[in-house]
## 1
Amino acid sequence: MRSCQETIRDLEKNLETRKQEEAALLNEIEVTGQAFEDMQEQNSRLLSQLREKDDAHIKLMVERVKLQQSQKVMLDEKTVLVQQANVLQEQLDAQVMMNQKYEETISLLRNSVHILEKELSMMHQTLDAHKRKTIESAQTSADLKLHLDRYHAQLKEVQELVAEKSEALEKQNFKNRRVQEELKNLNRKLERMRKLEMASNKDEVLLEEIREYKEILRCPACKNKQRDAILSKCFHVFCYDCLKSRYDSRQRKCPKCNTAFGQSDMHKI
């Protein structure tokens, strides 16, 4: 009987120990499970961050390829613009030299006209003096009259030549102004290309370019309204109100090149 009681006590002690071990084991399992859940949650976050980084990396690679393509296009455009600017500059230099030759020719012709006018004046004086002479000087007077007529004819020819050269010079100057305007526009384009290459904020450069284009579209006379009319005489463009105002006030010359125009030369565009 006593032995059975001791055995029971030992079993009860073992049972209590087993229960404590079981409780500790259950607690450890619970802690381990929570740690496992935390680790799974952390792994999920890390996987999400990794996917986001991969997406961002792919997006950056695509943007880089687009930027490289855009830079290549801009470099090609810049090369073309530089070539056009060089060609226009060469044309402008040649036209400037031609203008100088025209001006020298006109200067020489004007000097000739001045000399002929002086000689003509002297001939008039001599003719008047000889008219007062006797009949003996009649032949001399006739000769002087012949010379005078000849000088008149020469003077008329020189004056016509001066007028022709002056008109040619005016046309050449108009061509020069057109070339200078084209060269100025090309230089503005080149400057915008350089700014676009160097600028960190492309939007600011594009906004500046839009502002410049709007400025080009404004009437150069009033600086306010949009260009909507052209002069067929010189092909300069202004707003129709400015041209109509100049026509009505009898200031019927182009505000840019001073070419005279009539009502039939004004056309809306």
## 2
Amino acid sequence: MKSGRAKDVTIKAVLFDFDGTLADTLPLSFLAFQSVFRQYDRRELSTEELVARFGPTEDGIIRGHLNNQEQVEEAIRMYYRLYGEGHSQHVHAVPAIHEMLDELRAANLKLGIITGKSREAFQISAEALQLSPYFDVVVTGDDVVSPKPHPEGLLRALAKLGVRPEEAVFIGDSSADIAAGQAAEVRTFGAHWLPTHQSSIFAVAPERVFTDVESFVQLILAQGDGAPHRWLDWAKQLQAIAQTGLTYVKDVYDRERYEALREISVEIMEQYTLAGEDVIRMAFANETGYATPKVDVRGVVFQNNHILLVREKADGAWALPGGWADIGYSPSEIAVKEVREEAGFEVEAVKLLAVLDKKFHDHPPSPYHVYKLFILCRIVGGSALGGVETSEVGFFAEDDLPPLSVERNTEKQLHLMFEYLRNLDKGVLLD
């Protein structure tokens, strides 16, 4: 890391190692590796010997160190079977980790993972611990040529997020993590907050070692990029209080106070959103009664492993067909209606996939508090045809997505939808 670099640069992204930092999976990894080498090589490996072999993916470790090469593929399959089956007994979610990630997401920080695990092993753990929805980018050992301590994984994550090294921090539990972070010129911290970690003493000194997640969160939020969004949240709450108060108020002086409160909320929102004052005032004038979140419904349609998107006339970018929920329609009816009107297809609703709070995702600031419902639909008729608000209709592969209308959906959200294509039994995502 460059010496003397200022530490008051606004933090925009937080990058994590996985094993030993976000998930206490190391004991299970040790157990699975030891079982494999015992079964196929008739030899015992200590945890220290295994840690010394870490760097490559699980497949790479077994291929590189198993003497019984004739059965190496069988040994790899055994590892993943043991690793997957062992989560229910040996790996449990850590509430403090989820609370930390919730706070960082609420502060509108971008989150990423750089792990030496294979993509398959990471997905097993991330789904078991319900960690996938939090992250904007995940770089696994399968995605790099040079694993940690080389900085390739971190540099890939930074490029994907569009963040400069000085705008990010990285935290991990091993000496390789610290070396990789410093080589990427990212502020780098050590994590000793889970029961098991790779390095009790770091070969190179991190900026600081954290033994509890609360202290780490405090440091990040104090230097994070979330202050404008916290102001926006407060403005929305003021607007909700004012709107509800104006609905039930009887005293003329209290009415004046609630109207003044609404004026304050309008001024704050004008500062922190792209909407002008007139647009905000008109939107609020149409909102009466007890204040509640607005509901946006998106239809998720797959065909030949491609996802249906429509091109919005408003901004020329692409989105899942959908829009505000209309009075008198159920959520599934809205999804069916929006797909028909915006894409031309007749569909039937199959399953609710996700209910997401827009403020926890990387959308542009908005005056509204919005819940987004994603509903899986199946084509039963019709053909591709744009509508009043859409100019084009297309199906896209996960690795070939067009420019997205981020006001409506983010790239991360589309990747989450593809996870359901791979695993239809996956539970509903919340928040």
